[in-house]
Amino acid sequence: MAFDKKLLEILACPICKSSLQYDNENSELICKADRIAFAIKDDIPVMLEGEARQLTLEEIEQLK
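The structure assignment produced for this chain is given below.
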């Protein structure tokens, strides 16, 4: 399932306010600046800092 591109354009990282990247494979929104991923559950992004997942070094390398 593709994430709504219009929604992605207006969403920003709640921590640093930078743009987010959609990861279709893991159904997450990625903040490259903070190196974290926000899950998307039932088509709703969970944009809470406490719920964010730290990206691994391998995942960070794949983003570049």
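Interim note for the steering committee: The two ends are 24 Å apart (CA to CA). The chain has a mean pLDDT of 92.
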